[in-house]
Amino acid sequence: MTAPATTSAATPIGEVLIRLEAATVRYGGAPAVDGVNFDLRAGEVHALLGENGAGKSTLTKSMAGVVRLNEGRILLDGQPVAPASPREALALGVAMVFQETSLVPTMTVAQNLFLGQESAYNRPRGVNIAAQQFLQSLNFDVDPGTVVAMLGAAKRQMVEIARAVLHRARVLIFDEPTATLTPEEKQHFFALVAQLKARGVAVIFISHALEEALAIADRITVLRDAKHVLTAPAAELDRAAIVKAMVGRDLSQTFHGQRKTRVRAPGRRVLSVQNLRMAGVVKNTSFSVFAGQVTGVFGLVGAGRTETFKVVAGLLKRDFMHGGQVLLGDRPVRYRVPAQAVEDGIAYITEDRKLEGFFETMSIARNIHLGLLAKLRARRPVVHRSEQRRLGEHWVQQLGIRAVSANAKVIELSGGNQQKVVIAKSLVQSPELIIFDEPTRGVDVGAIAEIHQLINRLADEGRAVVVISSYLPEVLALADRVLVARQGKVVEEFSALHASEEKIMYAAIH
Amino acid sequence: MELFTPLTRPLAAWRDRLLGRGDAACTVPILDGVLQPNQRLETAAVAWAAPTGSLELRDLVSDGRQLWLADGPRLRALTPQADGRLASEERLVAAGPITALCALPERLGGGVAYAVAGREVQILGGSHHGRRWTGLAERDFTAVNGLAAGGDALIVTDASAQHAPDDWQRDLMSLGASGRVVRLGLAPVDDGKDRSDRVLADGLRHPFGAVAHGSALWVSESWRHRVVALGAGDRPSPVLDQLPGYPSRLAPAGGGGFWLTVFAGRTQLVEFVLREREFRQRMTASMPPELWIAPQLRPPRSFLEPLQGGAIKQMGVLKPWAPPRSYGLVIRLDAAGRPLASLHSRVDGQHHGIVAAAECAGALYVLSRGAGRVLRLDLNTLAPETGA
What we know:
The structure holds 2 protein chains of 2 kinds. Chain A has helices at residues 56-63, 86-91, 109-113, 124-137, 153-166, 183-198, 210-216, 239-247, 305-312, 338-343, 353-357, 364-373, 385-399, 415-427, 445-460, 472-478, 501-509; strands at residues 16-27, 30-41, 45-49, 71-76, 79-81, 94-97, 171-175, 202-206, 219-224, 227-233, 269-278, 282-290, 294-299, 323-328, 331-333, 346-349, 433-437, 464-469, 481-486, 489-495. By secondary structure, chain A is an alpha/beta fold. Chain A has 3 domains: 16-247, 3-Layer(aba) Sandwich (Rossmann fold); 267-346 and 465-510, 3-Layer(aba) Sandwich (Rossmann fold); 360-430, no CATH class. Chain B is 12% helix and 41% strand. Chain B has one domain (38-81, 88-187, 194-301, 316-386): 6 Propeller (Neuraminidase), CATH 2.120.10.30. By secondary structure, chain B is mainly beta. The termini of chain B are far apart. In chain B, a hairpin with a 2-residue loop joins strand 10 (135-136) and strand 11. Chain B has helices spanning 5-19, 168-173, 268-275, 277-286, 379-386, and strands at residues 45-49, 57-62, 67-71, 74-80, 86-93, 98-103, 112-116, 120-124, 132-133, 135-136, 139-140, 144-150, 153-158, 179-185, 198-204, 207-213, 216-221, 226-230, 237-240, 245-252, 258-265, 311-314, 317-320, 328-333, 339-345, 354-360, 363-368, 373-378.
């Protein structure tokens, strides 16, 4: 096995590479993509925007061979194609980098890169060297020998991108590629996209970060309710026009809300973390969380925010906790498993919903009911389907989950609706302390507003709410007090009234 | 489970020590939320300063019209002036340092109760003028550091059975737990109220101040970093726990609630020293107290000692190399004991060792024993934050 070339087959820039005609995909009778026409030219970056459930992911999955079109056709270089699997699509030069990474967590970076290309005999050293050279050629700082499970979300994303580039794809589909990247990593990513574009690779860029789409895309297509709404050069569009096209109403003012003019007074101290240490990741960090407030936790990727709260919620075993104390109220706690934390009224809503948030082949109702079963008092010898369904329907209605019914499988839902299922699964436990880790990652603007309203409602009800976010406008819109984490510890605290993007970012970096 | 507590406590302590949990975790609560540091105490106006600037100022109380200050053996009446300063008038020179004060209300006969050298409680003025107590229940007073009017009695906090009030660091380093709260009946003879003198609580870890709250009594317990409530016949129950410092006295606040003063902050280093018995014994036996690794009332003044809170950056990581030992903190509590706001003098400041606070004539007066100053803060400027 040798290091592959990163160049793709040259296609004259501007020529249509892939075209979808009247593409239609149905899930359980409901159209996820409805008669959409779409074309992609070689050497262009085409942003695909829309609310969750608009059909962006499904549309691109049909190109990548993950789902089949029920109607319509795909033309590649003018020839009809119908990839039946991602492998077939890849052979045709179409690769997709998924919103939630699809790497094998127990394998190394190098093994993941060359997965599916193995020879009869693979010399690990050779594979590692080839992977190292390739990663360096992309300017990605990732150790090829590291097991993927040990990587943070940003580095996993890098490996995912590298794998797509490695397979000489002519059409690269990025689904929310920048959601987990730091500002520096984003710049790397944008430079990489520019390189790919210069080589004639066509890039589809699905994102909820509208500014990013406006900055790097040549053309923008907007979908709404499974239908095509708009395709136009990015230069002719602005944020307000895109948002209006996405939601069919003018939401630009409510997107991420207004800056706070008043903050909630703190209630009793619900959580107190004192001098918590966890080898190399969390370094003597201390902070408190109060009832009736939203506590925002900002930090760059790798600041140890997620790990800290995973210790609090019992998701990281106490063996990994090397010192310090966690007090719930005034009671020291040290959970071995999450169930103990759930019993005590702590809910952690994961940043990686696909891996840790739900069972994708199970129905919405069963997923939500599973959340309830985590509470000891809710366990019954027999599970009643009717009770399960009622519970599911209640939460589908409460959180406005857009699905055919509570019996719909979670895999059929859009990212935003999947996130609502994950939230419902935790709220059904009636927690007192709710930790949202990147609650709107990969979620469209409409769902963001709904999730933000929900978070505010929970705080108004007197619950202690923590929002971990890497997106500053979100922190500023939601939090009553902002904690800034850097290098494994909370280094600064601001009242939302006194916080600004500059102050927070300065604390996070310096 | 309560029945088995005496049996399981040593086992739990051994387990905690082995695993570094509980009291052996060497952790300290953080100053965040409403306790987030500010410079309100450091920038407060100085209303009165001790001529010597020493550690002689031990207590400050208000009778509503004027303030009473314990300045070494002198009892001073301080009257607020139009310019915000305090006019001082010496009222008494006691036989030893005055360690605690209480302005008695009219229902208790009026006058000022004061403790001399922690061993004797006396009353100046009012209907009980000249009364004195030197102990109770076959135990003499040793370290009276707090007096309060409670119901129909004078409440006395006797911090330790072994160490004098000024020897509080030794009490901490010996893990002292011999403090008690005593009630001295002051009700008139003919009204049928309880006139008995009795011990309300014993075995406390350095009680430092008390205040009446309805029918209960709130007491600050310094070495357990908490405020406890004493009811009739009950065990002390925590009102406010996990304080980031060592609480001293409590005083009523206008609009309900209380002012709690904190005379030093907790640090992981001191918590660690408190775990190490042999180290403590050698340190206390061989070194002068001002050099102990222990809380202090004022920042170090020797150029040989590093600046407290100083730090160095190594390999891009900021490492503290001189943990602070003194701090200035006053916490405003609501009627339920929940912190509402706080006033600070940070580690690089001077107004440390806060041992008393009292409201008088629209201002909050704070006694910084470390700086030897009475500080003045206008209550109107504190109102939005403190609910005062």
